[in-house]
Amino acid sequence: MKIMITGANGQLGRDLVRECTRRDIAQVSSDLPRLDVCDLAAVREAVSAERPGALINCSAYNAVDKAESDFERARLVNAAGPGNLAIAAEEAGIPLMHFSTDFVFDGQKGEPYTIADEPRPISRYGESKLLGERAVMEACRRAYVVRLSWVFGSGNVNFVKKILEWAAGREVLRVVDDQISRPAYTVDLAPLILDLLESRAFGLYHLANSGICSRYEWACRIVELAGLSTRVEPAKSAEFETPANRPRFSALDLSRIESLLGREPPDWKDATQRFLVEIGADK
User: Fold this and answer.
1) What confidence score (pLDDT) does residue 215 get?
2) Is 216 marked active-site?
3) How many domains does the chain have?
4) What pLDDT does residue 34 have?
């Protein structure tokens, strides 16, 4: 099978390309400006020319706060684009895997969200991602929609890199302890995603590393593993004004994918340590 990966220059896209190479799976990588998923004609042309056996969509608008004032662009990339890929995949008779987010939930449940829980986004970003989920499931019968949370990997800016940047030269760093979820390391996600693709068990899934933590707990782990002297103190979300609301508890229940694949993802603490080694930031 040849896989077409859109948004291949992002964190997840890069590690999916690497995992395909490791498994000797043929793949073609597409990203802007080569392919604009918001252009249906261009998507159809690319699928027709490459004739892939499956599509994996990693393209996304991830600027959570900016989406509050730039919703039209967020909607185009996070909803219209995936919808176009779903149309092309259905026409070609091939599977499409698309990624969503824990931000489709309002964070009020107080325990991990299952695939049966009703989404209630509290931000425009979360709304755009929910629209994308629906567009994909409505247009493509061979679709996987995989919700991820707190994604980090090499290439792009992420929470781990931000903590390292903010902590450099500071004696004290305040980080919120009332936002709780599961970190998700793209190196650990990639093998599970390809295994899921091979399963042909289409539908909705939740995926992240195992274990649950707050932003504060994660920051403490990062600073400790990096050998920094910065003191991390807990804070509340209300202390930091942001355009977009964040869900307070958005951990995802992973039982469906764990049952299907017969294993659970690595723990977030171990994943964080391996990432710091990967980027040369471990002590």
Assistant:
1) 98
2) no
3) 1
4) 85
pTM score, whole prediction? 0.96
Please report the pLDDT score of residue 175 as a whole number.
98
The pLDDT tens digits for 66-95 are 999 999 999 999 999 999 999 999 999 999
Owning domain of residue 58: 2-156+184-210+252-265
Q: Which residues have C-beta within 8 Å of that of residue 176, sequence separation ≥ 6?
A: 214, 215, 216, 234, 235, 236, 237, 239, 240
Residue 235: inside a domain: no
| Long-range contacts formed by 31-38: CB under 8 A, 24+ apart | 31/6, 31/7, 31/59, 32/59, 35/6, 36/81, 37/6, 37/7, 37/77, 37/81, 37/82, 37/84, 37/85, 38/76, 38/77, 38/80, 38/81, 38/84
CB 71 within 8 A of CB 77: no
Tokens of 176: 């919120």
Residues of the chain with pLDDT under 70: none
Choose the catalytic residue: 61, 113, 125, 205: 125
